[in-house]
Amino acid sequence: MTEPTIGRRLESLQVAGKAPFAIAKIGHVVLNCRDIEQSVRFYTQVLGFKISDIYEEDMIPGGMVFLRFNADHHGVALIGSLKDSSEKIELHHMAFAVATLDEVFRARDHLERSGVKLHFHGRRRAGVQIAVEFADPDGHMLEIYWGVDQIGSDGITRPSSEWKGAKSLEEAVADPVRGQDTSVRDERLVRSAK
Fold first, then answer.
1. How far apart are the C-alpha atoms of 146 and 103, rounded to whole Å?
2. Quick one: pLDDT at residue 91?
3. Helix, strand, coil shares of the chain as percentages rounded to 5?
4. How many domains, the chain?
5. HEC assignment per residue over 30-47
6. Are 45 and 127 in the same domain?
7. What range defines the domain where residue 48 resides?
8. pTM for this structure?
9. Are 33 and 39 spatial neighbours (Cβ–Cβ below 8 Å)?
10. pLDDT band for position 25 (50/70/90)?
11. Cα(143)–Cα(127) distance, integer angstroms
12. Whether residue 52 is found in the same domain as residue 118
């Protein structure tokens, strides 16, 4: 008899409805950074976050900055206590949703103009979100995305046969998945094939 695949073993661990509460979203992420001023500059001036509050170094070694991108007091907090570059072993990446596909294109252009190296732009498979991926000054991987699949109360997800990876934003727009409207309102954002 063959051993079950990792997918089957992991699915068997799911216990529906056992928690007496329902987590609604990722509330916030706190990151250590080497140079808190450089990191705050990146998150505010490149990504457009706003500072909510600051702890001076007498409150927490290295200081701490609370940053927001919506009505929550903070979605990201930075602590200036990292001695060297992040090894990226604890955190794979952090993702930020935007409301429109045009905003993903604008994010790509803005990041490139700001000198930020993109690690990926296009569509991932599971979840089929269209995204740009890049690193902050300490090497923490970040994602700005739009269009992640929504799962209803029936719990049915898109079958893997409908996943379509795309290696650019333009490819994602040209070859949409079922039910995903990849219309770009500002066509100037779409780069022509070279």
1. 8
2. 74
3. 20, 20, 55
4. 2
5. EEECCCHHHHHHHHHHHC
6. no
7. 27-82
8. 0.77
9. yes
10. confident
11. 14
12. no
